[in-house]
Specification:
Elements (H helix, E strand, L loop, with lengths): L3 E3 L5 E3 L13 H13 L9 H13 L7 H13 L17 E14 L1 H11 L1 H4 L9 E15 L2 E8 L12 H10 L2 H19 L5 H4 E8 L11 E4 L3 H11 L7
Parallel strand pairs: 5-6
Antiparallel strand pairs: 1-2, 3-4, 4-5, 6-7
InterPro entries: PDDEXK-like_dom_sf (IPR011604), PDDEXK_AddAB-type (IPR038726), Restrct_endonuc-II-like (IPR011335)
Protein name: Exodeoxyribonuclease V subunit
């Protein structure tokens, strides 16, 4: 619903609602929708191409969203795909399908994992985890199944990318620095990206006989979509879990005793 204002004659006038990525619906379902947008579009196609317009129109109609959101999504896509993720020209708009893997499924067999040892390992190796409260769960074993939103290659290195639709505020300035790290901590995305990083390393190791962490592992990007602008680093969180962390995390889930 639009907001109301009073005109010069004292009459109540309904204002047109503002349509922007900040006012796009929030919650689990809209979040899934935004994920789907970036799964379905072709990164290298212009946002006004018939292909992209048809894809977005179809997705909006399936979710019963008004087509007034179409230009909002087009602007979002343009901003996100044209951001330099590393400040040195790494852009998703340049990644063709052969350089991307969408929704990569992984399975991590867990022999035995305790929260006490996990907390020690991740706090020792990751500054985000070190300043976050401890996880508490019963000792677990079994199979951990998950999906990585996107894996992509750039200059011979491979990266995990996760789309986040969290609303942190209505200005790009709140999607950077300490506020972005705080959002990562609040939702324990640190543990999520550590697991994703391990899953990616195991995937690469299984397919590359010469796999080497320093040569091939690029790290993780968490993109907070609502805060991203082309030409800015807002909305971009990057981390590169260390080789030591990935080694100890793997030893942990394999049930090995480690000196943490």
């Amino acid at each position: 619903d639009g907001e109301a204002s009073v005109d010069h004659d004292g009459n109540l006038v309904e204002l047109e609602p503002e349509y922007s990525i900040y006012t796009f619906p929030r919650g689990a379902r809209p979040g899934t929708f935004l994920h789907t947008v970036f799964e379905e579009i072709e990164f290298t196609a212009p946002v006004d191409s018939p292909e992209t317009v048809a894809t977005l129109t179809d997705l909006l109609q399936k979710e019963n969203y008004d087509l007034v959101w179409l230009p909002v999504l087009q602007q979002l896509i343009k901003d996100v795909l044209n951001c330099s993720l590393d400040g040195q020209g790494m852009k998703l708009v340049d990644k063709n399908p052969s350089q991307r893997l969408t929704e990569m499924e992984f399975l991590l067999p867990i022999t035995l994992l305790s929260s006490r040892m996990l907390n020690k390992v991740i706090a020792k190796h990751d500054t985000v985890s070190a300043k976050t409260g401890e996880l508490g769960f019963a000792t677990v074993s079994g199979m951990l199944k998950g999906f990585i939103d996107l894996v992509f290659e750039h200059d011979g290195k491979y990266y995990v990318l996760d789309w986040k639709s969290n609303h942190l505020g209505d200005d790009p300035s709140v999607y950077r620095g300490a506020q972005l790290v705080e959002a990562m901590r609040d939702h324990r995305y640190d543990l999520q990206y550590q697991i994703y990083a391990l899953a990616l390393q195991r995937f690469l190791r299984s397919r590359m006989p010469n796999y080497d962490y320093e040569t091939h592992f690029g790290g993780v990007f968490y993109l907070f979509l609502r805060g991203m602008e082309a030409g800015s680093d807002s909305g971009i969180f990057h981390a590169r879990p260390s080789e030591a962390l990935l080694l100890e995390l793997e030893q942990l889930i394999d049930g090995e005793q480690i000196d943490a």
